[in-house]
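Teaching assistant's notes for section 4

Start the section by putting this record on the projector. Ask students to predict, before seeing the second block, whether Heterokaryon incompatibility domain-containing protein will look compact or extended. Collect guesses on the board.
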Amino acid sequence: MMHLLYDMLPVAEDEFRLLRLFPATNLEDPISIGLFTQGILDCSLSYDAISYHWGDPQNRHSIIANGLNLSVTDSLLTALRYLRDTATDKILWVDGICINQQNISERNHQVMNMGKIFSNASCVRIWLGEAEDGVQDAIKIVSNLEMCLNKDQEIVKAILTNKAASNGITGLLQRPYWKRMWVFQEIVLSKRAVVHCGIFQASWPCFRALDKVSGDQRLWAQIQVKEPWVLELRRALFGIAQFCMDRDDGERIDNVLHPTRSLKATDPRDKLYALLGVCKLPRDFNFAADYSQPLVQVYTNFAESLIRMDHDLSILLTAGIWDPRNGPEVGLPSWVPDFRGIQGVDIRYLAASYRSHFNATKGKSPYYSFKVDETSQQNHLQLEGIIFDSVNKFVVIDGGTGSRQKASRLVDPRLPGPYRVQVSQTFQSQSIFRTMIFDDPTLSPEQVPERIDRLALGFAYDLVQEHLQIEDISMDSKAQVDAFLSSFRTANVNEGMETLCQTFWRLLEEDQEELYWFREEFLIRIQQAPRDRTIVKQAILWLWFSDAGYQSFYDLGVHSIN
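Reveal the predicted structure now:
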């Protein structure tokens, strides 16, 4: 029946299908729709587009479309039931119905039209699923944020004074919908968007307001440490940050390619095809949606087109050996990124490539050429370069207590041995630190948040406990702790240790609980970002020792500390 329905309503490349959702007075009434075609450029009808998570493709139900049975997923069936009106028709666009998913040729040209379809929709309806406990309170508090969209402190206050509603927001933002690759295009291109969960709804700008304040650490610092549910909320908000990008920013492929790497797509080719409707690419960018091409060819063609367009090799920083966490081995060339996932990619190095002071070639474009190997038929990227040096030692710092011990040994001047790294008369920890944070001279002290001060003291507390094995630091252990901290001086570290010791002991005498919470905040930080673990320890230590005063930290690695 599906083929018959679409055969009755063929679409040209400049056309698309819409559906008329007929009303019902009861939620459980059968779904009935009328499917019809329209020109994309001359469509005068007002329609809404549904953005939803497909769910289990095997869990399907039948609806009535133009008098015929049409199979849809359980998720879409539920969305249609909740979004239909009780009295009037609704005109909608839904990919699972309006595109014949079995017709590759149609999918190719309709995917290329999706940018226009979502841009022209009167409203994008974001469907999260049916409501659960806590959703009503969550949607209510989010909706109320419309009254204070530009008042950051009031927004945070509203969240922090309602734990139940905030936990409900966390639950909403942890739903599978937010992991979808297509969501990026569907939300960023919308003129207007509304979030629906069961019978409850809130405008998308309210969620964007939450995203905005979530990035301001000054608004959350103390409460986040003492209340784990606040940390969970902020983590959930970080998960929707890419969907809050301005439309103009989304038009640049280098702005969106890597922030969307962690998103999922049922068809891994859609990790790139889903960007075509958002990003503005030049006419000679030789890449279009083609579901007849295998995955390796799609990813290889894209990477080659990007290098040719930018005359830049930064994309190589996200390529390399296959990581099984991104999916099964498919035989990608080593210079082609595996866009299926972000595992194995250290985005810090990619971020560094965009800094203007990293310019060893003085602006000269790299030499490159592409060649197909006659034997393997693989695309080879040929480059010219200079052998600068060789790696003598590689130390992995990942999660867990063992890694914290390993990292702290790197910064302990009293412990020569396999963990120490000597680099031409420069103290080993400083060498490691400067390498890991790219020794960025473009940042200014004004950009250093007060949180660095707290993290520094928390790090010192943790370092003392780690090396001296003192569970309960008190004034009785002052001499032992002072001797340990002062030992850094023997390694030609700058002055400033005096201030560190004074501040440490002042807090221990006057407010030991505050010092304890500083350590907890430090531990939470390194649990949040395991790949940045070494940066945080080294940055805190050397930011501290580089200045004489507790209040004046020079910002080298702050952008890696969120």
